[in-house]
Design goal:
OB fold (Dihydrolipoamide Acetyltransferase, E2P); single chain; mainly beta; 1 helix; 7% helix
Length: 139
């Protein structure tokens, strides 16, 4: 089984490209803090290279930017190629799933949450139907 689940922050804006055959591919790196502090009392971070294809690539490039928290699930993949006579080895996560981990920032156009999620009273336009009192239930 090859499954990696990661949550971290993007180190730069995702880079969206298109292959010669028209398939979208998005490359990005996420920084993930380690659980324990180092000898200086700071948390070290690991920088994980990731690649997403097709609709996942387009979604990531559209909705995520540098510094945003992202959750991904995918598989670890290795590959190698030759550059200037030297063999280069690459290990990366091929993204299968992506999740929004934090709400939108205050500067975005849509609110981070709906009023119904922040209150116990439901308005007429929120899609909920009022229920009768317990003694009026049919069961």
């Amino acid at each position: 089984m090859n499954k990696a689940i990661l949550v971290g922050r993007l180190t730069r804006d995702p880079e969206l490209r298109t292959t010669g055959s028209g398939v979208s591919v998005c490359s990005f790196t996420i920084a993930i803090n380690r659980r324990f502090k180092n000898a200086e009392g700071n948390y070290d971070a690991d920088f994980i290279n990731c690649v997403a294809w097709r609709q996942q690539a387009e979604l990531i490039s559209k909705y995520f930017t540098k510094g945003r928290m992202i959750g991904i699930a995918g598989s670890i993949q290795t590959r190698n190629y030759e550059r200037d006579g030297q063999r280069v080895y690459v290990t990366e996560i091929v993204v299968d799933e992506v999740d929004f981990v934090e709400s939108k920032s205050q500067g975005d156009s849509a609110p981070a949450s709906t009023p119904a999620a922040n209150s116990n009273s439901f308005g007429a336009d929120d899609g909920f139907i009022p229920m009768p009192a317990d003694d009026d239930l049919p069961f």
